[in-house]
Amino acid sequence: MSRAADRIRGHRVKAGDRRFLVGSARRLLWLKVAVVAAFCIGLAMSPRLWIGPRSFPAVPIIEGLPPIEGGTAYGLFATLFVLAAAIVVSPKPQWPIAAFLAIVGGFCLADQTRWQPWVFLYVFLLATLGLFSWDRADTAGQRSTLNIARLVIACTYIFSGLQKTNLNFIDVDFPWIVSPITGLVPASAKPLHAVAMLVPFVQVAFGIGLLTNRFRRVSLVVAVSMHVFILAMFGPFGLDWNDIVWPWTAAMAVFDVLLFADDEPYSAGDLLSPRKRPYHAVVLIVFVALPALSFVNLWDSYLSAALYSGNLTDGMIYLSDAGRAALTAPIAEHVVRSAEDTHVLNLQRWAAEDLDVFPYPETRVYRAIAKRVCGQMSDSRQLVLVVREQRMFRSRPETGYRCRDL
Questions:
Q1: Are 331 and 374 in contact (CB under 8 A)?
Q2: Cα–Cα distances in Å, from 81 out to 44, 94, 114, 236, 315?
Q3: What pLDDT digit, counting tens, does each position of 309-360 carry?
Q4: CA-CA distance, 317 to 365, in Å (whole number)?
Q5: Contact, 237 vs 2, CB < 8 A?
Q6: 280 in Cβ contact with 149 (< 8 Å)
Q7: Tens digits of per-residue pLDDT, 129-178?
Q8: Rounded distance, CA 233 to CA 227, Å?
Q9: Phi-psi region of 276 (alpha: psi -120 to 50; beta: other; left: phi over 0)
Q10: Beta-carbon contacts of residue 116 (< 8 Å; ≥ 6 apart)
């Protein structure tokens, strides 16, 4: 009798496991694997951003916050990969996810340059998965978790499209992105310029379409096609540029398939209504309300899907001959002479060459970096920081800062 009962219980467990490998549960399992794998690839491709060595200064969220460096940084960085493995294999990964996010959060508090768009997206997707019960019988929780993840991805597309509705994207960024095509076929430049004017609206349209049952499939095809195109343009056979975005672009296509390539019915109301779920409300604020403020320069661009949109703030440090001579060698190697007694330290190029990522594009960050460089000057007149803020509204013209202004 006891053996028969054990067999029945075993059969039920196996049946439950099979149920957990189909439908919504299966998509959550694969989404967990995809997010963790993409996060680890991004970390592995940018080790100097997290553990050094680096010449590009760290900019903590609060001035005076102690840096994470040396053995502590190496230990925490290695722990992230151990926790990632635990997240993948654990049937109840809530605690490994919480520990992983706590370490990433500590790193990000110590340096705003680590607030990369892919880090931001992966953190929220992981938090979404970490708040799920991972109970095979929790079908309501499965639907809610998938809907929150869908909201994150769809809103990222919508705001990325809205950010591109500017002449800087149409006349500068997009022509550069498609230069591998126009370089081979110069006659394509004019029709591609017309395409540039359509891109923002197409992206907004398929982002909205992903929120619906009727247009979900066609929107999915367009979204995945966009990522294939981006990989072709930025990849080794195109611009061969900013390789940190390659795995992120590929991961987004995978997320799209996992979240939207199914017949499970949902509506925009399901995704946009928190229904007494606090975290769902937080996601609405972070991915819907706050990005709208970026258009009037009241919220950060990288937290508003503005990468390669033409709506980013640029920063340049100009130095005299004496200022250039005062720099330490690791910084000086990134300086370019532009004219007599004039040298340029391009902050975007410096970060890309030193950390394999671009700097966090906000004036406060550029000022903090320039202040660190000013510490090497014997005369404050040897350096000037020039910042140009680009937004849909309330853009600020070029502003110069001397060391005394920082």
A1: no
A2: 9, 16, 17, 27, 34
A3: 888 999 999 999 999 999 999 999 999 998 888 999 999 999 999 999 999 9
A4: 13
A5: no
A6: no
A7: 999 999 988 988 999 999 999 999 999 999 999 999 999 999 999 999 99
A8: 10
A9: left
A10: 42, 46, 49, 244, 302, 357
Which residues neighbour 106 within 8 Å (Cβ) at sequence distance 6 or greater? 68, 76
Q: Is 401 exposed, middle or buried (0-12, 13-18, 19+ CB in 10 A)?
A: buried
Tokens at 42, concatenated: 């991004």
Looking at the predicted structure, is the pLDDT value of residue 9 above 70?
no
Q: Quick one: angle between helices 94-110 and 117-130, nearest 10?
A: 150
Look at the block and give the residue holding tokens 């309330």. Answer: 394
Sign for the pseudo-dihedral over CA of 56, 60, 65, 71 = negative
> How deeply is 318 buried, as exposed, middle or buried, from its count of CB atoms within 10 A (0-12, 13-18, 19+)?
middle
In whole angstroms, what is the distance from residue 309 CA to residue 139 CA?
38
Kindly provide the b/e burial profile for residues 237-247, where b requires at least 16 CB atoms within 10 angstroms of the residue's own CB.
Answer: ebbeeeebbbb
